[in-house]
Amino acid sequence: xxxxxxxxxRAAATFAVAALAATGAAAGTVALLDRAQLAAALEQGxxxxxxxxxxxxxxxxxxxxxxxAYRAGMKIDPTAAVVVIADTDQNAxxxxxxxxxxSNAPKVIAVKGGLPTWEAATGLxxxxxxxxxxxxxxxxxxxxxxxxxxxxxxxx
Length: 156
Hints:
alpha/beta, Oxidized Rhodanese, domain 1, 5 helices, 7 strands, 17% strand
């Protein structure tokens, strides 16, 4: 190979690396984020979808509103970051890597610590110890007397 061809190949390789960096070659990678990192990432922009990769029984006990239930081989066409919540960090990473391979997601975020981390980062978690519910059945909507019945639950 002569000297001219070497410099031409080197310039082409440098250009290709720069082009990949400019187009976000990091797309298709998965980041395992803790609460603070997740909160910071969410402040930069809302995810296009949240994928709930927890087992079906766990999803039924503690549903995650508006989340897509993960199933093997699922196809998504994300327009922004994809967030994966699972029962373990390893499962979140595994599902995130699968989704990164099969979709054009600009970013895939696996939530370190699962649902409790998601709730803490998004403000969906209630106070420590659970949330107590109070519901009042008024005696009469036109009267100012004491309520006929008051229901209180213990934190759960």
